[in-house]
TrEMBL record:
InterPro entries: Ergot_Alk_Oxidoreductase, NAD(P)-bd_dom_sf, NmrA-like. It holds the Pfam family NmrA. PANTHER family: PRESTALK A DIFFERENTIATION PROTEIN A, PTHR43162. It comes from Orlajensenia flava. Residues 3-235 form the NmrA-like domain. The lineage of its organism: Bacteria, Bacillati, Actinomycetota, Actinomycetes, Micrococcales. This is NAD-dependent epimerase/dehydratase family protein. Transmembrane segments: none annotated.
Length: 285
């Protein structure tokens, strides 16, 4: 009998979508949570276990008991993946995990400075049974990180210039993860996941204007203005540095190319920006 999928980050934007879509496919899930109270946000009936990256070998082995697959994602606060993520990969192999689906990022193969690159290389080096998902920028950034600017000032305040981005709905990443966990043929493969529409933030603002029924504008600050605002709002220096790098990548149009990977892997098209805004409209009300 097939075992369960152990899902790290199970209460986050992507992890919760993985849990939901695995359950929709009838798969058994073990949701990893940092503390017992976090389990309240899980769907009813989902098994959960308290788990922390950096736990002892015995604690990790106990957490993985009964699982035969692992959804692995790096918590944003963890940079030292050798100390905190590599031991979980080792434990997965030690416990007979037959597939590790790793949430990586688009273009990781050309960006050796990212922690995701180190994880992908370790998965290959150890001959782990991996599948890497390399998503583009999330639509959900608009409904989380940048939601307050849109809700309170009716503006998208990002230094993306005139660049295009093929944004992807995190729920589609969950659908893809559930698909590759549920089918054969995905081991030691990497999939770049983008939306099927490539657009600039001026067009995003226009769609939001039409759906929300009030003017939303794309402010288009300079990099200097944007970083100064982050610093003024009290953002940590390392977060400011990451944002600087991210939006330079955007302005170089590295994330502009759409694809049909979601459609190919799930049999359904990627979520459109208009549908996303319809679904999340209450966030900006």
């Amino acid at each position: 009998m097939s075992g369960s999928v152990f899902v790290t980050g199970s209460t986050g934007i992507v992890g919760s979508a993985v849990v939901e879509n695995l359950r929709a496919k009838g798969q058994s899930v073990i949701a990893a949570v940092r503390k017992e109270t976090d389990a309240a946000s899980l769907p009813p009936g989902v098994e959960h276990r308290v788990f922390e990256f950096g736990a002892t070998d015995d604690e990790v082995d106990a957490a993985l008991a009964g699982a035969d697959r692992l959804f692995l994602m790096r918590p944003p606060a963890i940079e030292d993946v050798a100390t905190y993520l590599f031991p979980l990969i080792d434990a997965a192999r030690r416990n007979g995990i037959r597939q590790i689906v790793f949430l990586s990022l688009q273009g990781v193969q050309g960006n050796r400075k990212t922690p995701h690159y180190a994880v992908e290389q370790y998965l290959k080096k150890t001959d782990a049974p991996y599948t890497s998902l390399r998503p583009n920028f999330f639509m959900q950034n608009l409904s989380s990180t940048y939601a307050a600017d849109i809700r309170e000032r009716s503006e998208i305040y990002l230094p993306a210039g005139r660049a295009l981005t093929a944004l992807i709905d995190a729920r589609d990443i969950g659908r893809v993860a559930a698909a590759v966990f549920s089918e054969d043929g995905h081991l030691r493969k990497a999939y770049t996941l983008s939306g099927e529409q490539s657009m600039g933030y001026r067009r995003v603002a226009r769609i939001m204007t039409e759906v929300l029924g009030r003017p939303i504008r794309y402010a288009r600050p300079s990099e200097k203005e944007y970083l100064a605002k982050l610093a003024g709002d009290g953002a940590p220096a390392d977060y400011v540095a990451v944002q600087k790098m991210i939006y330079r990548v955007v302005r170089w149009n590295i994330s502009a190319l759409p694809n049909r990977a979601v459609r190919k892997l799930t049999g359904q098209p990627a979520t459109t920006m208009r549908q996303f805004v319809e679904d999340y409209r209450n966030v900006w009300s």
